[in-house]
Write a structure and sequence with these properties.
Shape: globular
Oligomer: single chain
CATH topology: Rossmann fold
CATH architecture: 3-Layer(aba) Sandwich
Number of domains: 1
Helix content: 40-55%
Length: 283
């Protein structure tokens, strides 16, 4: 397994590892955001999950079909999945080993928050603190995503650069919502870099199946003793806001930071609150 990664800050500082979400490359952890965390005394590591960006891709595995998704959803079984969220958590452990990091503050967003939960549940000695952003326990009783978010996120994949960039901007505009400003030029620039690094629609589908097949972590999380911060936007159209309190209530002693109006992105205007909260939690 090869993972593309980069770092910010002083390696002598406590490590903080950022885990990205579904179908999204590590570059969506904006460099300025990473530098802001590093300035608060962290050695920040961001990386591409398996099957995306510059990390190992599972080209030999066929993309999962809608039938695979449906059966895995109903049966809550990993049998049709090429890998699970636990496998992705083990990738993170491998990265920690490669960087000679005994334990780190772990911050995961969306699917990355789910991976971070698996990491804390199965490798608690490697996790100093857990911060889960716009993520969930996997409880199927939680409200489903809004149709507008699903429609743009799971639209037909495109390969031409111009069409890819239009789709990329549309996705993040929709997920940002109407409360915080949307920086189209910056988003397009990120999309250009993502296109150069190589999108992988088949890998995104395999990641989605990993989420479905990994099931509900709620009962397991009730026994988690890792200090946990949950951050969630009240206007999240994809992982709806009730998932935030649900996760915080499941983990003993977890704290919840609700950010009014935030969607399923990290808008620059919200960075000060988020960075402050992470810094205080990991201190």
């Amino acid at each position: 397994m090869k993972l593309g990664y980069d770092t910010f800050g002083d390696p002598a500082d406590p490590a903080l590892v950022l885990i990205m979400g579904l179908a999204t490359q590590m570059i969506m952890w904006d460099e300025d955001f990473c530098r802001a965390l590093a300035a608060r005394g962290h050695y920040v590591v961001r990386f591409d999950n398996r099957d995306i960006g510059l990390s190992t891709r599972f080209a030999e595995a066929r993309p999962p079909s809608r039938v695979d998704m449906l059966i895995s959803s109903v049966m809550r079984s990993p049998e049709r999945a090429r890998y699970t969220l636990l496998d992705m958590a083990k990738d993170t452990v491998g990265l920690l080993d490669a960087l000679d990091i005994a334990a780190a503050d772990i911050v995961g967003i969306s699917m990355g928050g789910m991976i971070a939960q698996e990491l804390a549940l199965n490798f608690p000695s490697r996790v100093r603190t857990l911060t889960s952003i716009m993520s969930s326990t996997g409880d199927p009783k939680l409200p489903p995503p809004k149709w507008a978010a699903l429609r743009v996120l799971f639209g037909r994949p495109v390969t031409k650069r111009s069409a890819y960039l239009r789709q990329y901007v549309k996705i993040w505009r929709t997920l940002t919502g109407d409360v915080f400003p949307f920086d189209e030029a910056h988003t397009r620039a990120q999309g250009e870099l993502a296109y150069e690094r190589g999108p992988n629609p088949a890998g995104a589908a395999r990641q989605m199946l990993a989420i479905i097949a990994s099931g509900n972590r709620k009962e397991a999380l009730r026994g988690l003793s890792v200090p946990t911060l949950v951050i969630h936007g009240t206007n999240d159209p994809l992982v709806r806001f009730p998932a935030g309190p649900d996760l915080a209530n499941a983990i003993p002693g977890a704290k919840l930071l609700a950010i009014e109006g935030m969607g399923h992105t990290l808008p620059r205007a919200a960075w000060p609150r988020i960075v402050d909260a992470i810094a205080a939690h990991t201190r």
